[in-house]
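Deliverable D4.2, example record:
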Amino acid sequence: MAGYQRTVDHVRDYIQHFSLDNCALGSQGYNRVLLQLFGYMGHGKSSLINSCKYVLDDGEYYIYANALASHTSVTFNRTAYPLTDTITIVDNRGCSTFNAYETGEIYAQLGNFIPVNQRVEWTNNYEQMTDRLEDSEMDPNFTDVTIPVFVYSVKKGLAEGEKKETKEFIDNCRKMTGFYPIVVLTHKTCGDFLQAEKEFLLMGVEKVIKIENYTKEDHGRTQGRHKEILNFLYSVLEDVNFQMKYKKNPRKERVQRKKFLLNFLHEREVNQRLEKMQMQNITN
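Output generated by the structure prediction step:
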């Protein structure tokens, strides 16, 4: 079954019954696929969750994750929403920028050093972050296959400064998870999605998926929207199946990710101190 030749029901059934045990080498110690959503404030992360639940459950439309149409954020917790017995989608506090200050917290989440269902507090305090990493070793989580999903509304074009930050974020997401982020372009009818798609592909992204979310105001079922949402979830599982064909070591990978994160946090701390010293020299 390829592309849109797959029927909606067949794809939904495949997603609902997907099991890591059925991968080429079995589960290899993993037990859950975690779709970690990231993006700027108000770009449609919560609406994507509601749409996924709506399409997979095939029932009434419910608001599981609060959402606003404006470029503001109503999500402050890292909240998990199970989609199936194996797949969980995680909402996150929206970013105002993807600089080192906010992405440190994101990388900690991608490495599963920060538990789900906790409030997200951006911090650039080096000691606090390293303390939290050490605390995470009390009950380490190395059983999730984490897929980063970058949600971006085409209503707003990427500024030059945002492009550099976003590309660095995309590269580091792969280092933290082994997966390039899947980019989901929302509000596809309200902007130049072709230009947005081109910009993300130039950053190294391998999959850009265009969708129009269902909303409280507009949730009349259409075949096109259902296929878009299911195509997004199916694409995630394609990536999982591909990576799980190769021998994995969840514990070893967690150690490698922790080393990367500690190095990132250290470099951020050094750069912040240098910037502070430069500012002091200027004012003096």
